[in-house]
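Study this:
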Amino acid sequence: MFSKNSSGTPIGRRLLIFLRYAWIAAAAVTFSAPAAAQFSDSYNFLKAVDDRDGDEASKFLNRPGTVIVNTRDSTTGRAALHIVVERKDRTWLAFLLQKGANPNIRDKEGLTPLMLATQLRFVDGAKILLANNADVNDTNKQGETALIRAVQFRDSELVRLLLASGADPDLPDTLAGLSARDYAKRDRRAASILAEIEKADADKKPETKERFFGPEG
């Protein structure tokens, strides 16, 4: 029925095998195209942010219904916010938050932008994030809050900012079971930091109002 080539395999059969694998390859390309395009968009957006290319980044951000502002690097888990916080870029930080960036997004190390800003002593960045609903008591993989890290750095300005924003000085980490207050007490060089925590405690206490009684009848 089929003619044979020199190797003895029917030519028609070889043609069918070829067509079958050609169809599979074409289908694979077709079905993987959207995923590839999505990956490409994520990569190019994060690259634009990294390159400070506002026009290129805006092309992605201005698409209707897009959530690319919260896309993360497939290797590090870093989002656009992590990139701009790392370079202490207030302008880009405010811009991305205005575009709907999640202030509490985590990278693969469990770091939020606020935690990263604290570690980098980026006070202005921390202020911007807190003003845009960053969770002041969020923790990293070791259970450390931004306040714990600020205490460990003995950064009075950050400690004041975080306490004023509602940071809990008594939340223990999972690494040592110690809180920001505990670390401040243990560090002999952190007397001023402990004083900030105690001052915040005093400021939170309700004022006692003087009571007045009516005349006795």
Observations:
- The CA atoms of residues 45 and 59 lie 9 Å apart.
- The radius of gyration is 29 Å.
- The chain has two domains: 16-113, 136-203.
- The chain is about 55% helix and 0% strand.
